[in-house]
């Protein structure tokens, strides 16, 4: 069961390493991208051995973190120490990265537990590789998490989307996600100039704008339907069953932290479930 999933790929100078622990499950592997000496995301803590081997292949000058979740920031402390490089993340992530944050047991099992570290904000002058070949522009895109940041490589039309996309038709949500904010971030992304999307879990998506658009349309439609049913007096659980089907094993495994009714509650009330008084 505890199989290491490791694969490498190259695309026009972009190198990537996919690492993870389980096979044939959604979202249980995560990708570290490398553009010359710039690294996007640190990989999950229990995959350090493979991430270190990958990063040792060439000098790295900076690590850029898309958001504070353990599959993305996990090796931030070790990379900073071993490669003596600064780590950058959105200011909304700094406290969690420095002081630690709650990681539910099912997430610890899949990814491990990250070490704490100090991160700096993104600075425009620090976002270009030393060779000058690659340059990244941060774009704050909250919703999946408050600190979520995408990176655009304007010359090549690449978008590093972190966990903004992942799937066109998500049915599950954690209590901390804010799909209302995510809808705004997806709208904002569609105004940007990019073509190829690099998702942290899905990998390369050739028609990036179409993928973002299909997720946006799905969420808007689901929100409209959920709010319409809510007006008729139905409870969130019943709406969830009608629109998304019965809860699945993931809900049980996460003790309700990651499930379908969270998606409906958050869309109906337009805020994360963690901020609602459960009823
Ligand atoms: Zn995430
Ligand atoms: Zn992730």
TrEMBL record:
Q: Does the keyword Hydrolase apply?
A: yes
Which intervals hold domain Metallo-beta-lactamase? 27-201
Q: Which domain of life is it from?
A: Bacteria
Hydrolase is among the record's keywords: yes
> Which terms does the record give in the GO molecular function aspect?
hydrolase activity
Pfam families linked:
Lactamase_B (PF00753)
- Alphabetical keyword list: Hydrolase
Name recorded for this polypeptide: MBL fold metallo-hydrolase
Species this protein is from: Pelagibaculum spongiae
């Amino acid at each position: 069961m505890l199989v290491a999933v490791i694969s490498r790929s190259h695309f026009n100078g972009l190198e990537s390493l996919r690492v993870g622990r389980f096979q044939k499950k959604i979202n249980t592997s995560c990708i570290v991208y490398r553009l010359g000496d710039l690294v996007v995301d640190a990989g999950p803590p229990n995959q350090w051995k493979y991430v270190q081997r990958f990063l040792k292949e060439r000098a790295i000058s900076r690590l850029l973190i898309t958001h504070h979740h353990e599959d993305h920031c996990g090796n931030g402390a070790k990379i900073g120490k071993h490669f003596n490089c600064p780590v950058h993340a959105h200011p909304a992530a700094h406290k969690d990265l420095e002081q630690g944050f709650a990681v539910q047991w099912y997430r610890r099992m899949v990814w491990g537990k990250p070490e704490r570290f100090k991160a700096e904000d993104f600075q425009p002058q620090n976002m270009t590789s030393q060779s000058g070949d690659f340059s990244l522009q941060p774009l704050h895109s909250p919703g999946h998490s408050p600190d979520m940041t995408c990176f655009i490589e304007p010359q090549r039309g690449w978008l590093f989307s972190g966990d903004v996309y992942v799937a066109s038709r998500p049915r599950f949500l954690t209590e901390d996600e804010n799909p209302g904010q995510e809808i705004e971030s997806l709208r904002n992304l569609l105004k940007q100039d990019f073509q190829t999307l690099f998702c942290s879990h899905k990998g390369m998506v050739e028609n990036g704008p179409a993928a973002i658009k299909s997720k946006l349309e799905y969420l808007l439609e689901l929100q409209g339907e959920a709010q319409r049913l809510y007006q008729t007096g139905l409870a969130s659980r019943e709406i969830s069953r009608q629109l998304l089907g019965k809860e699945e094993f993931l809900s049980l495994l996460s003790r309700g932290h990651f499930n379908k009714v969270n998606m409906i509650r958050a869309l109906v009330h337009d805020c994360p479930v963690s901020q609602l008084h459960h009823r």
